[in-house]
Amino acid sequence: MIGVFDSGMGGLTAVKEILKLKPDAGLIFFGDTGRVPYGTRSRETIINYALQDARFLASKRVDAILVACGTVSSTAMPELKKMLDIPVLGVVEATAEAAVKATKNGRVGVIGTPATVNSGSYVNYINAVDPSIETFSQACPLFVPLVEEGLFSADCDITRLTAEHYLARLREKEIDTLILGCTHYPVMAEAIGRALPGVTLINSGAESARRLSDMGLLKDSGGAEYFVSDSTEHFAGLASRFLGMPLNGRVGYVEIDKY
Amino acid sequence: MIGVFDSGMGGLTAVKEILKLKPDAGLIFFGDTGRVPYGTRSRETIINYALQDARFLASKRVDAILVACGTVSSTAMPELKKMLDIPVLGVVEATAEAAVKATKNGRVGVIGTPATVNSGSYVNYINAVDPSIETFSQACPLFVPLVEEGLFSADCDITRLTAEHYLARLREKEIDTLILGCTHYPVMAEAIGRALPGVTLINSGAESARRLSDMGLLKDSGGAEYFVSDSTEHFAGLASRFLGMPLNGRVGYVEIDKY
After folding, report:
1. In chain B, % of residues over pLDDT 70
2. Fewer CB within a 10 Å sphere, N or C end of chain B?
3. What is the pLDDT of residues B181-211, one digit of tens each?
4. Average pLDDT value for residue range B224-253
5. Of B219, B193, B238, B204, which is closest to residue B72 (Cα–Cα)?
């Protein structure tokens, strides 16, 4: 059974990709909806929260953990790997490798939360694989609240202008590939794509799900269970936006401060 | 000495009004920047966080507490009053009374976070004072992230469209008075005012500061001290946006989960 966690609901876009590959995958998801967002917080706070999230999943006896959160994957992987004695996978590696494969002109953009962009995680990994690639990063702090507010349609003027506000500079840089470095962003992929015509978008959840599958970590074992640290009703109401299908599985509450 | 707390930085708009009335007011501010925002969280979480915030201020031996947060003032006042043996004042009462005085056509709008609007706190208090007043409420979840992202200018298209998105319905209802039911909102008052021309805006921080002064709770005793639950540098960098002047006072970090 695989454990998946995120700072909030965005990680469900990774769950969506896992269920595409294996519809009956044994899976426990934890979304830290009581403390979302992580991306504007300090490094110490992010690490502290991430260790609590992982301890909760470990207490459920999962065989491996996917950190389906760009912010945590960019900030807390060494600490998580040190604490856990099961495989733990972040979204950065698979996503960065996919971007290196996808680019033709060697110019790659990275968008994410402030914490993710400041960490330089995607850029460092891309350049470890291929030092000749030029990268251009942009923090987009309003994308997460826009998605959570339901304003993710490419036809919404607020969404369109906010996407242009953040992405105009990347367009000028003539990138041909863009990493969606936050698991919320696939929900507004169409709006992002319109602001950057012709650019290949790399979905971190999809790349990581494929990596899990390649590693043999996705097993048929009885479906998904979901846990959150705030209202279970709110989560159940919004989950289909991220999953692209109705939520199928029990939703429970966790007092995450206790872990 | 007065204690002031908020879920984040918005409460500084109330501090600004206190310092306008008494520039050397003895004041301890706590902003829960490590757990902001409260307004989209569940009632239980908000009450739990508010009690921790108040315990921290009480440990600093303040004489009274101003809850400079629309969400907490709308959700946790009975619990706070039960726990504390010093005066504790929320922003709802003074603000609602000011709106009742200000309206001429008896049609008052209320904007705030989802938690504030769902609580019905302002509406209930307005109708307790004058049952003939008609009220119209609107949650505006994107206003807080816009202010925190620096997009609060009335000339910014994103801000303008977001204000119109939320406020068009209140305009149709022909309100003549609007309660800014979140302490972040005064920062974007000009954009809000342009979406609702001719409407009187009621600033909850200003009304509450006046009430504190009337109650004799503002004392000259050596200036302000600030505490936050996330990066002190980030706070110091943004504080002037809310205070309308440079930050003057020490900024310390608090591990608020421990209170």
Report:
1. 100
2. C
3. 999 999 999 999 999 999 999 999 999 999 9
4. 93
5. B204
Distance from CA of B143 to the nearest CA of A (A): 10
Alpha-carbon dihedral sign for residues B170, B176, B181, B184? positive
Q: Which tokens sit at B257? A: 């989960």
Give the residue from B108, B254, B101 showing the smallest Cα distance to B180: B108
B69 is a catalytic site residue: yes
For position A150, what pLDDT does the model report? 87
Q: What is the pLDDT of residue B234?
A: 87
Task: With a cut of 90, say whether residue B40 has pLDDT above it.
Answer: no
Domains and CATH numbers, chain A: 2-90+207-258 (3.40.50.1860), 92-203 (3.40.50.1860)
Q: Is B141 at the interface with chain A, CB within 8 A?
A: yes
Q: How many CA atoms lie within 13 A of A203 on its CB side?
A: 23
How far apart, in whole angstroms, are the C-alpha atoms of residue B5 and residue B59?
A: 13
Instruction: Show the DSSP H helices in A120-201 as ranges.
Output: 121-129, 143-148, 157-172, 189-195
Minimal CA separation from B115 to chain A, in Å: 12
Chain B CB contacts of A145 under 8 Å are 141-142, 145
Query: In terms of DSSP bridges, do strands B27-31 and B2-6 run parallel, antiparallel, or are they unpaired?
Result: parallel
Cα distance between the two ends of chain A? 20
ipTM for the predicted complex comes to: 0.82
State the sign of the Cα–Cα–Cα–Cα dihedral A112, A117, A121, A127: positive
Task: Reply yes or no on whether B182 is catalytic.
Answer: yes
Q: Which of A34, A45, A151 is closest, CB to CB, to B230?
A: A45
Task: Indicate which of A118, A138, A158 best probes the interface with B, i.e. most B CBs within 10 Å of its own CB.
Answer: A158
Closest CA to B29 of B242, B231, B251: B251
pTM of the model: 0.88
Of B34, B146, B158, Cβ closest to residue A45: B34
pLDDT of A222 strictly over 90: no
Alpha carbons A255 and A55: distance in angstroms, whole number: 12
